[in-house]
């Protein structure tokens, strides 16, 4: 018989999910800090428009960071919390170009590409583990982020 955790998932599958969610947490954390930098430092003719959009985005990312960390805890594991760990685990890199709106939006789109891909992987893993909680979370995130990708792409004229 398989050993189950407190929410009825196998401990081995929960460990795999928690590990992948910790990587997602790292991606979100670096992405969040980049967007904060864009919000604080944006300059140029689209300042007012982008300043507001970046604030909306970083507030949303902050909520997702908390939800992902709490999901890791729900699975019976500990979320990573150190930026040094996030920097090692994340494909998204710290952005040094924070005042140019076009570069910021391009970076946002690249970051969403990394995150959406990872969330799709988590969908597969969570479905195989019969983990509806993680699956629903990832599905909700992907749906909303696909719309944001469309909107930021439209801003760039793509």
Molecular structure report:
- Helices cover 75% and strands 0% of the residues.
- By secondary structure, it is an all-alpha fold.
- Helix 1 packs antiparallel against helix 2 (47-74), helix 1 crosses helix 3 (83-89) and helix 4 runs antiparallel to helix 5 (132-155).
- The protein contains five helices and no strands.
Layout of SSEs?
Elements: H1 11-41, H2 47-74, H3 83-89, H4 101-128, H5 132-155
Helix pairs in contact: 1-2, 1-3, 1-4, 4-5
How large a portion of the residues is in β-strands, by DSSP E? under 5%
Shape, principal axes of CA atoms:
elongated
Order of helices and strands: HHHHH
Helix content: over 70%
**Quaternary structure annotation:** single chain
> Helices and strands: which structural class?
mainly alpha
pLDDT averaged over residues: 97
Spell out the key features of this protein.
mainly alpha; 158 residues; 75% helix
Q: Quick gist of this model?
A:
The chain has 158 residues and is mainly alpha-helical. It contains five helices and no strands.
């Amino acid at each position: 018989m398989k050993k189950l955790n407190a929410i009825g998932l196998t401990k081995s599958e929960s460990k795999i999910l928690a590990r992948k969610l910790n990587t997602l947490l790292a991606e979100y954390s670096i992405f969040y800090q980049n967007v904060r930098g864009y919000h604080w430092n944006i300059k140029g003719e689209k300042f007012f428009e982008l300043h507001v959009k970046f604030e909306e985005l970083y507030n949303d990312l902050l909520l997702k960071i908390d939800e992902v960390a709490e999901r890791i805890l729900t699975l019976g594991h500990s979320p990573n919390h150190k930026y040094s760990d996030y920097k090692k685990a994340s494909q998204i890199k710290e952005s040094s170009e924070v005042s140019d709106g076009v570069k910021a939006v391009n970076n946002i789109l690249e970051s969403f590409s990394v995150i959406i891909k990872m969330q799709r992987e988590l969908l597969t893993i969570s479905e195989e583990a019969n983990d509806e909680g993680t699956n629903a979370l990832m599905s909700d995130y992907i749906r909303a982020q696909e719309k944001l990708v469309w909107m930021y792409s439209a801003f760039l004229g793509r």
